[in-house]
């Protein structure tokens, strides 16, 4: 079950990368509108305004496509083979799914016209109630349907993946053999998806009420709610389930709901980007959305964890410092610039529960402090790039300088706490292992960069032990025939910063920013 959830969580990262990139574009064009940075002439120059308008139009369209992007990402990510067929089938499924729901709504007299605020107010409802009813519906790709957001896309993606994995090798009788295999998948989708639509038509209103209620509860929890989110998110890092929690906060009503330029949007990141894309940004709405975004991560990503790396270096054995200096420096710079922290976290999470809990607590505390200080720095990266574009260059309304002040305090606390705990409890962080842990053969492997994939394959027990290779933003995700054949010291010698053995077949290897290279090299080696 945990393996399945982890794989599902990984599929949600595809749309996130697109939205983060879109957000960066919005951040850059918003800088062009700041007269204090670029001057009145540039800010009001017609060509600049046309460029900004074009970027906003593109990014707004990307936000509108989020549900179908999630559907495609989930379906192709969970498909075991022939992923392109799953991608083709899920588009058909998504359209039919909403067409059927729209038809059922029409049968009940619920249409775009009858759910408009004006129509409902003429029918005797007050403005608040009219908005509440109207916001429950939307037009998706020109089809009137429930406002399901990414939930609709995820549901259709899961169903398509299930049908695809079950029937993409199905062989029909000779007379119908043309429709066998991959051709059979879209046919089954067309037949089955209306039933999913009918079930969803009756269940969704209740599910939607529950989700909105949870979002309202979190919103009313104020700073305490942000603390619980930050603490839980870091606590889930070893399991990989933090991806699921993040996407629920970023793209669903659990992360908040707001009206921006007359449109209802849900999810902290969606709200933030919608406000950034608005011609008249509402700073109060912006500030509310950023409570769950990068402003809560900068203190420990940009300042705290790099200081922890320095503490690990200072507590390492003198003879081993030359070996681990480059690794710790690279990990610290990666966290500082991009906000990718797992290479550092995996150096201590599994060997020191004390440091793990301390780190999770400090993460939650960071979210709480930023909320109490009304900081307004968004996006989903967490590193210096986001702090610069969405904080420093946006102006003082973001209160980015408070992040720096808190961050400096975090750096001092992280350094001394890590140094004290490592020395007090003799924690085997990088550079404190016994010399015997790494034999001569491992040293040779570690220095052989020209055979990266071959070295990883050797450490994993050979080609016969490999079943499936995948990766996320920092981890190599593997399905093996037997994880007991894995040589951990050899993997460490290839640059691995940590292992997660989920069971006797599933293994995750942390490579940080080198994970794409590791996955590609290993796949190429397996194909030989």
UniProtKB/TrEMBL annotation:
<dbReference type="GO" id="GO:0016301">
    <property type="term" value="F:kinase activity"/>
</dbReference>
<feature type="active site" description="Phosphocysteine intermediate; for EIIB activity">
    <location>
        <position position="472"/>
    </location>
</feature>
<dbReference type="InterPro" id="IPR013013">
    <property type="entry name" value="PTS_EIIC_1"/>
</dbReference>
<feature type="transmembrane region" description="Helical">
    <location>
        <begin position="144"/>
        <end position="163"/>
    </location>
</feature>
<feature type="transmembrane region" description="Helical">
    <location>
        <begin position="292"/>
        <end position="312"/>
    </location>
</feature>
<feature type="domain" description="PTS EIIB type-1">
    <location>
        <begin position="450"/>
        <end position="528"/>
    </location>
</feature>
<keyword id="KW-0472">Membrane</keyword>
<feature type="transmembrane region" description="Helical">
    <location>
        <begin position="324"/>
        <end position="341"/>
    </location>
</feature>
<dbReference type="GO" id="GO:0008982">
    <property type="term" value="F:protein-N(PI)-phosphohistidine-sugar phosphotransferase activity"/>
</dbReference>
<keyword id="KW-0808">Transferase</keyword>
<feature type="transmembrane region" description="Helical">
    <location>
        <begin position="376"/>
        <end position="394"/>
    </location>
</feature>
<dbReference type="GO" id="GO:0009401">
    <property type="term" value="P:phosphoenolpyruvate-dependent sugar phosphotransferase system"/>
</dbReference>
<dbReference type="InterPro" id="IPR036878">
    <property type="entry name" value="Glu_permease_IIB"/>
</dbReference>
<dbReference type="InterPro" id="IPR018113">
    <property type="entry name" value="PTrfase_EIIB_Cys"/>
</dbReference>
<feature type="domain" description="PTS EIIC type-1">
    <location>
        <begin position="1"/>
        <end position="434"/>
    </location>
</feature>
<protein>
    <submittedName>
        <fullName>PTS maltose transporter subunit IICB</fullName>
    </submittedName>
</protein>
<keyword id="KW-0813">Transport</keyword>
<dbReference type="InterPro" id="IPR001996">
    <property type="entry name" value="PTS_IIB_1"/>
</dbReference>
<feature type="transmembrane region" description="Helical">
    <location>
        <begin position="52"/>
        <end position="78"/>
    </location>
</feature>
<dbReference type="GO" id="GO:0005886">
    <property type="term" value="C:plasma membrane"/>
</dbReference>
<feature type="transmembrane region" description="Helical">
    <location>
        <begin position="12"/>
        <end position="32"/>
    </location>
</feature>
<keyword id="KW-0598">Phosphotransferase system</keyword>
<feature type="transmembrane region" description="Helical">
    <location>
        <begin position="400"/>
        <end position="422"/>
    </location>
</feature>
<feature type="transmembrane region" description="Helical">
    <location>
        <begin position="347"/>
        <end position="369"/>
    </location>
</feature>
<dbReference type="InterPro" id="IPR050429">
    <property type="entry name" value="PTS_Glucose_EIICBA"/>
</dbReference>
<dbReference type="GO" id="GO:0090563">
    <property type="term" value="F:protein-phosphocysteine-sugar phosphotransferase activity"/>
</dbReference>
<keyword id="KW-1003">Cell membrane</keyword>
<dbReference type="Pfam" id="PF02378">
    <property type="entry name" value="PTS_EIIC"/>
</dbReference>
<keyword id="KW-1133">Transmembrane helix</keyword>
<keyword id="KW-0812">Transmembrane</keyword>
<feature type="transmembrane region" description="Helical">
    <location>
        <begin position="85"/>
        <end position="105"/>
    </location>
</feature>
<keyword id="KW-0762">Sugar transport</keyword>
<dbReference type="Pfam" id="PF00367">
    <property type="entry name" value="PTS_EIIB"/>
</dbReference>
<dbReference type="InterPro" id="IPR003352">
    <property type="entry name" value="PTS_EIIC"/>
</dbReference>
<feature type="transmembrane region" description="Helical">
    <location>
        <begin position="184"/>
        <end position="207"/>
    </location>
</feature>
<keyword id="KW-0418">Kinase</keyword>
């Amino acid at each position: 079950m945990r393996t399945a959830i982890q794989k599902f969580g990984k599929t949600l990262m595809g749309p996130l990368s697109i939205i983060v990139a879109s957000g960066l574009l919005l951040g850059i064009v918003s800088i062009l509108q700041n007269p204090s940075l670029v001057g009145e002439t540039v800010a009001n120059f017609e060509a600049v305004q046309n460029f900004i308008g074009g970027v906003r139009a593109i990014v707004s369209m990307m936000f509108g496509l989020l549900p179908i992007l999630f559907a495609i990402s989930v379906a192709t990510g969970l498909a075991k083979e022939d992923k392109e067929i799953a991608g083709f089938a899920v588009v058909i499924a998504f359209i039919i799914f909403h067409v059927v729901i729209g038809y059922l709504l029409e049968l009940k007299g619920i249409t775009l016209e009858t759910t408009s605020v004006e129509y409902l107010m003429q029918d005797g409802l007050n403005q608040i109630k009219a908005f509440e009813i109207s916001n429950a519906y939307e037009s998706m790709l020109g089809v009137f349907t429930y406002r399901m957001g990414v939930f609709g896309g995820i549901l259709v993606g899961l169903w398509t993946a299930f049908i695809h994995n079950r029937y993409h090798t199905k062989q029909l009788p000779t007379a119908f053999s043309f429709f066998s295999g991959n051709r059979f998948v879209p046919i089954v989708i067309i037949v089955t998806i209306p039933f999913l639509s009918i079930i969803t038509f009756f269940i969704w209103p209740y599910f939607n009420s529950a989700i909105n209620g949870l979002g309202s509860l979190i919103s009313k929890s104020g700073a305490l709610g942000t603390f619980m989110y930050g603490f839980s998110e870091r606590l889930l890092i070893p399991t990989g389930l933090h991806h699921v929690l993040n996407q629920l906060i970023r793209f669903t009503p659990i992360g908040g709901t707001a009206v921006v330029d007359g449109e209802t949007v849900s999810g902290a990141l969606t709200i933030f980007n919608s406000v950034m894309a608005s011609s008249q940004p509402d700073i109060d709405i912006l500030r509310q959305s950023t409570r769950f975004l990068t402003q809560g991560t900068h203190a420990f990503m940009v300042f705290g964890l790099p200081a922890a790396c320095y503490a690990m270096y200072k507590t390492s054995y003198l003879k081993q410092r030359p070996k681990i200096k480059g690794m710790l420096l690279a990990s610290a710079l990666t966290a500082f610039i991009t906000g990718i922290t797992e290479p550092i976290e995996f150096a201590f999470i599994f060997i020191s529960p004390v440091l793990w809990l301390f780190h999770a607590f400090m993460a939650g505390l960071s979210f709480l402090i930023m909320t109490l200080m009304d900081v307004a720095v968004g996006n989903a990266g967490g590193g210096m790039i986001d702090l610069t574009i969405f904080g420093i260059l946006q102006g003082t309304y973001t209160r980015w300088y408070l992040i720096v002040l808190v961050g400096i305090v975090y750096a001092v606390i992280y350094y001394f706490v890590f140094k004290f705990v490592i020395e007090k409890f003799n924690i085997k962080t990088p550079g404190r292992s016994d010399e015997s842990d790494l034999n001569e053969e491992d040293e040779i492997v570690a220095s052989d960069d020209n055979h990266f994939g071959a070295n990883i394959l050797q450490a994993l027990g050979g080609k016969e032990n490999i079943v499936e290779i995948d990766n996320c933003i920092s981890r190599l995700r593997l399905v093996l025939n037997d994880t007991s054949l894995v040589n951990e010291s050899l993997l460490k010698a290839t640059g691995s910063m940590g292992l997660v053995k989920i069971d006797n077949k599933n293994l995750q290897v942390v490579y940080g920013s080198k994970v794409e290279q590791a996955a590609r090299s290993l796949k190429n080696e397996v194909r030989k």
